Amino acid sequence: MEKNTIKQDSGSILIKGISYFCVTIFALFCLFPFALMISSSFMNEQEIVREGYKLLPKEISFKAYDLLLNNSTQLVNAYQVTIFITVVGTVLGLFMMSMAGFVLNRKDFKYRNFFSFLIYFTTLFSGGLIPTYILMVKHLHLKDSLFAMILPAVVGAWSIFLMRNFMKAIPDSLYESATIDGAGDFRIYWRIFIPLAVPSLATIGLFSALGFWNEWYNGMLYIDTPAKYPLQYFLQRMVSQTNLGALINSGAVINTADLPTQSIKMATAVLATGPIILLYPFVQRYFVTGLTIGAVKG
Amino acid sequence: MMETFLYHSIRSLPFKLEVGSLARLVHTGGNIVREIIKNKVLFLMLLPVILYFVIFHYAVMPGAYVAFVDYNLNKGIFGSHFIGLKNFEFLVQNGDLWNITKNTLLYNLVFLALGNIIQIVFAIMLSEISGKWFKKVSQSVILLPNFISMVIVGVFAYNIFNFNSGFINTLLVSTGLDRYEFYSDPGIWKYIIVAFKIWASTGYGMIVYLATITGINHDLYEAAYMDGATTWQRIRYMTLPILKPTFILLLLFGMGGILKGSFDLFYNLIGTNSVLYPQTDIIDTYVFRSLVGQFNFSMGAAVGFYQSLFGLILVLVVNFIVRKVEPDSALF
User: Where does it mainly reside (chain A) (predicted)?
Assistant: First the structure.
């Protein structure tokens, strides 16, 4: 925009300067907790006990990671649980939501407004936590089941509508010509629609996968067996408890007096966030598409 | 994630609701059978999602009745003794309902007002920045907190504020001052909670506002520039007025959700530290505690029902206002 600017008034230079300054400060404010967490995880335990967490430690120690990666069966379990619920939940959810979006976008589907309302109303009124809990435990028997962390979050009303809006971009004439060629509804969905919808599936799939990766709430409510804890809930337990020995490795003998309690909490946090931070630069644009797609009125 | 999708509802109407379609469905019972036979594949494709909503949402709704009984685990919701509004009376009398409602409302008001203002300010500042690389990197960094779980936010709080080894206490001790016990001072957590909320949510809203700004017709800015408008005048008389409708709509719809608390933020920062409750207990944490801590199902359900019902009324009122002001943006 400013490429062929002829002259700039002093006010605009000032505004530009302030903008650069404030954005930099705020970006650092956003990064600071991450930086502190990472440096704390590499700190020597004695230094933390003596002086506390620091941004620039005097000594670097890999002990927390060494212990976690070589001894912790529980962390491995938690990783497995989280990967399982993320993969199953995302794939299942995408399949269900893309079919629903496809049907609700079909103009020849008579009751699409009724079904849209049925879905939409659940965002306005909910039965509440306690009836949900009673249903999940007493009637669906999902207590302590991995599916207690998958099923309640497998589908989201807004994701369905987002999917439907994405689909509006696909011209109706495509369906029509396919129908004339004798293709059935599911075939049209699978062979024509899905290949065209890959970018939107990626966006919604990433939202969904992120939700499952960050899942801890249903784990806290419904999971009793420590081996079935998802990663984030495992982390939450780690931070709030002082006796970490049992949490890290049930069964095996760990000298608890020797345990780097403080740095290990931060190391677990780093390992739980790591994949997101590593993938973030590559998937970010899909998220931004998802966030701004709503700006185009459908 | 739910609440972030609020933006979509406002900006891209998912559909226009026709209340008539419901009535038509009831009246044309015969037609629906014919319709299902004709479009059975489409109905089958929609079925999994509908089943999900029926089981996990609609089947739960009658359970809200538990708010009106003295819940007995063995007798179940509908077998328990009906006590009418006793649960609500108790909650009003002991002051709990008032306290958590007040906290929830005040926190959400601050999140909404302060949050939106900060998002707008940063969106404008980013739009004024011309360095492409700087813009891209800073945008990514500010958006990053949006993607981590609130459990990690809880870890950050521990990392920064805990008594024995927290970062701030490290600084205090190293400058010769005394340690400060953050976790026993309810007053200070108001600010910490708001700060983390702003920290976690600015990136998202900023990008939504930034999309509106970059959507402004380029020619308009060019014309303003030709006419000799300064940057400040351009922001004041063009950008801000263009953002105003979005801002008002987001505020209004935010008001509709003002009884819904950010459970994951509050729980991960406060946890079960009851010292901090007076100023940090919101409706959602209260309901959760009544389920997990005290096993007082009916009391918790009463609060939950109150929240859902007034939440629904609020959304309807807000939608009514939006429809008067800007019919195109109303939800239904």
Answer: membrane
pLDDT at residue number A93 = 96
Q: Chain A contacts of B268, Cβ < 8 Å?
A: 236
Residue B188 has pLDDT above 70, yes or no: yes
Rounded mean pLDDT, A42-60? 87
**Which residues lie closer than 8 Å to A97 by C-beta, 6 or more apart?**
A155, A156, A159, A160, A163, A204, B49
Minimal Cβ distance to B35: which of A55, A110, A129: A110
Q: Is the pLDDT of residue B12 over 50?
A: no
- Indicate whether B323 belongs to any domain: no
Q: Do the Cβ atoms of B152 and A273 come within 8 Å?
A: yes
Min Cα–Cα distance to chain B from A129, Å:
7
pLDDT of residue A296: 37
- Residues A207, A290: contact at Cβ < 8 Å? yes
**A158 at interface of B, judged by CB pairs closer than 8 A:** yes
Closest CA to A269 of B295, B148, B237: B148
Q: Read off the pLDDT of residues B58-102 as tens digits, 9 standing for 90 and up.
A: 999 988 888 898 888 788 888 888 888 888 988 889 888 999 999
Residues in A closer than 8 angstroms to B126, CB to CB, are 19, 23
Task: State whether residue A190 sits within 8 Å of chain B by CB.
Answer: no
* Stretch 138-167 of chain B: residues touching chain A, C-beta under 8 Å: 138, 140-145, 147-156, 158-160, 164-167
The full set of domain ranges for chain A reads 73-222
Query: Residue-wise over B186-201: b if at least 16 C-beta within 10 A, else e?
Result: bebbbebbeebbbbbb
| Per-residue model confidence as pLDDT tens digits over A215-245 | 999 999 999 998 999 999 999 988 877 656 5
Residue A8 above 80 pLDDT? no
CATH topology of domain A73-222: MetI-like fold (1.10.3720)
Q: What range defines the domain where residue B207 resides?
A: 95-295
* Runs of H (alpha helix) within chain B: 6-11, 19-27, 29-38, 40-53, 86-93, 96-128, 132-143, 150-161, 167-174, 186-214, 218-226, 231-234, 240-256, 263-270, 277-280, 283-292, 297-325
Which pTM does this prediction carry? 0.87
When pLDDT is cut at 50, 70 and 90, the band that residue A254 belongs to is low
Query: Domain holding B277: CATH number?
Result: 1.10.3720.10
Min Cα–Cα distance to chain A from B283, Å: 11
Q: What pLDDT sits at residue B24?
A: 58
Please tell me which of the candidates A22, A111, A186 has its beta carbon nearest to residue B41.
Answer: A186
Residues of B in contact with A30 (CB under 8 A): 141-142, 144-145, 199, 202-203
Handedness of CA A37, A41, A47, A48 (dihedral sign): positive
Asked if residue B1 is part of any domain, the answer here is no
